[in-house]
């Protein structure tokens, strides 16, 4: 389990590195981490992120991802986009409907599981 | 000696079984909960930040800045401390962005507006809610405005809440 988690992490970092190498000034690939909140609720990050590159998607991959956790983004108007469920591989949060300069924030939680306090880490590309 | 080895083996077996049982949970470290505020707390942050900022003429603060407290799935939503303050800063900034691109704004007013917009760098939002890459992008909006190009400001207004019009 630990071995496969590490492998996912390496894959995620390779995806990030590949995107950055392809166009280092045109896309952001940033580390993300957090801890699931109490009571199966949703936690909204205060960090504001801007789609900066030529990519027409926002995506994320994870080195560690607690079972039952869900991760998605909300745009500046409060609309949610994409959900990643229990996966470490790269997944799209929004595809084709993002624009350069669009701002968004991350939201995540453990969808009703009583596993508050479990943390995640990964990379987000936008 | 043999009995001792047996006891050690039995103890190891019990330990292994215990670990296997724990393995039904997530295979991740458990750390302290992140600090959070509820929707009412985020609204209080917003209202407190209002006192530090003057909106562009003709604009007013939202009557109720409380963000959603319950998601569509019925679960509660909590916010990272600073969320409400950040939303207030962005609301304020949006009003000045709108003034900056308004064709009715005189050149002198536009320069004064730009000077006000640049003070965003002293806000909580700019200092605490932007990752380095995002701060670089946001700086690009300010820099282009300083060069007289309002296209990036115009584009950023797409992120603004409707009630900042």
UniProtKB/TrEMBL annotation, chain A:
Residues 1-27 form the signal peptide. The lineage of its organism: Bacteria, Bacillati, Actinomycetota, Actinomycetes, Kitasatosporales. Keywords: Signal. This is Uncharacterized protein. It comes from the Bacteria.
TrEMBL record, chain B:
The keyword Signal applies. It comes from the Bacteria. Keywords: Signal. PROSITE patterns: PROKAR_LIPOPROTEIN. Residues 1-29 form the signal peptide. This is Lipoprotein. It comes from Streptomyces rubellomurinus (strain ATCC 31215).
């Amino acid at each position: 389990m630990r071995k496969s988690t590490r492998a996912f992490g390496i894959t995620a970092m390779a995806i990030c590195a590949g995107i950055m190498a392809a166009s280092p000034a045109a896309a952001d690939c940033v580390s993300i981490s957090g801890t699931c909140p109490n009571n199966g609720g949703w936690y909204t990050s205060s960090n504001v992120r801007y789609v900066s590159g030529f990519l027409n998607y926002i995506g994320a991959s994870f080195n560690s991802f607690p079972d039952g956790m869900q991760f998605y983004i909300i745009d500046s108007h409060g609309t949610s986009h994409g959900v990643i469920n229990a996966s470490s591989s790269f997944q799209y949060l929004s595809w084709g409907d993002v624009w350069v300069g669009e701002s968004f924030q991350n939201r995540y939680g453990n969808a009703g599981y009583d596993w508050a306090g479990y943390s995640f880490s990964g990379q987000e590309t936008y | 000696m043999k009995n001792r080895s047996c006891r050690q083996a039995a103890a190891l077996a019990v330990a292994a079984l215990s670990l296997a049982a724990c393995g039904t949970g997530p295979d991740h470290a458990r750390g302290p909960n992140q600090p959070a505020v509820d929707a009412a707390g985020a609204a209080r942050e917003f209202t407190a930040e209002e006192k530090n900022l003057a909106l562009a003429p003709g604009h007013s603060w939202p009557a109720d800045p409380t963000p959603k407290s319950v998601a569509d799935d019925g679960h509660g939503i909590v916010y990272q401390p600073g969320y409400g303050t950040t939303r207030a800063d962005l609301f304020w900034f949006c009003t000045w962005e709108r003034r900056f691109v308004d064709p009715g704004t005189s050149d002198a007013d536009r320069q004064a507006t730009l000077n006000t917009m640049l003070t965003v760098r002293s806000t909580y939002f700019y200092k605490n809610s932007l990752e380095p890459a995002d701060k670089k992008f946001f700086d690009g909006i300010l820099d282009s405005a300083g060069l007289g190009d309002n296209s990036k400001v115009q584009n950023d207004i797409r992120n603004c809440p409707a009630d900042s019009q």
